[in-house]
Amino acid sequence: MQFNSSHKASILVMLMLALTTISQQAFSLAADDLYVDVYTVTDNFETTQVYDSNTGKFEQVPDSTKPIIKHEYGTLFFKDGFIPTSSATANLSYYGLDLATANAINGKTVVKLSYWISINNLGEGKYLSNFPRSSQTYVLEGVPYVIVSVKGASNNTGGETNTTTTSCTSIVTSITAGLPAVTVSATQPNAAEAGLINGRFQINLDAPRANKTIVSFTISGSALKGKDYKAVKNTVVIPAGTTSAFVDIQPINDKKQEVTENIILDLATASGYTLGTAPSATVEIIDND
């Protein structure tokens, strides 16, 4: 069959229209993955010089207002949650973070606001409907970021920012003698299988000590270790000169329909500390099936 120039032109137009239609249809569907960053406040800190009244000497102790930040980059999947592809650690200033912002986005999946808007607009403002964003923005190196979540995640849905965040302790100005009193709280009480959102316990001393404090605890509750959440060690180390450490609960998406389950952390007695007024706390894991 012979094609003249008019036939060729008609075929070219038809192909262009077909490709345009396919492209529009592709972006009319909601995305099921998104490239994101995660910045996590670790329990390691920059050091500062502090005077120890017991020894009469200055010592280098961790400064709890200057935590080391773990940065992960990867993909947030609608069904499988966040899967990192790279990881690094540095101080707050390296990532252009202040302490308040680091605490606000701690452990959450974030993206640049401009990136979220441009990708979402591919589908007439609905392409990222599976990944709602926070209405509040957070500045990193002068660039506004937003928290994104997986649609249906119980403690971060509808584009609203989760209000439960962790925070670091205040700056150390002196060292206290004697045994510390230890308490625990659930600073992130709602973990979720959807998006694999972690829960978090924070274990606190009443005041900083010159030496590290090793705190023991037991874990119980209706959630099963290794099936509903990843196993955790039964001790934490609170570094010298600081007053807190974290125990993160990482849920496992087991694909089974379950009721909300809980994890109870009870502080154990030990010779290196006394128990304070809040020796127990609870984190819940919310199912997504």
Provide a descriptive summary of the structure in words.
The chain is mainly β. Helix content is 13%, strand content 40%. It has a single domain (33-286), classed as Immunoglobulin-like (Sandwich). It is built from three helices and 15 strands. The strands form three sheets. A six-stranded antiparallel β-sheet has the order 3-2-1-4-6-5. Strands 8-15-13-10-11 form a five-stranded mixed β-sheet, with no helix packed on it. The protein is flat. The model is unreliable at 18-28 and 154-173 (pLDDT under 50).
What does this entry show, briefly?
The chain has three helices and 15 strands. It is mainly β and 289 residues long.
CATH fold node name? Immunoglobulin-like
Tell me about the biggest sheet? Answer: 6 strands, antiparallel
CATH superfamily: CalX-beta domain
Which spans have pLDDT < 50 for at least 5 consecutive residues? 18-28, 154-173
The total of beta strands comes to 15
How much helix is in the residues?
10-25%
> Numbering strands along the chain, what is their spatial order in the largest sheet?
3-2-1-4-6-5
Distance between the termini: 57 Å
**Secondary-structure element pattern, one letter each:** HEEEHEHEEEEEEEEEEE
Give me the secondary-structure topology.
Elements: H1 5-28, E1 33-52, E2 57-77, E3 81-91, H2 99-104, E4 109-112, H3 113-120, E5 138-140, E6 143-147, E7 181-188, E8 190-192, E9 199-205, E10 213-220, E11 235-238, E12 244-249, E13 261-267, E14 274-275, E15 280-286
Parallel strand pairs: 7-14, 8-15
Antiparallel strand pairs: 1-2, 1-4, 2-3, 4-6, 5-6, 7-9, 9-12, 10-11, 10-13, 13-15
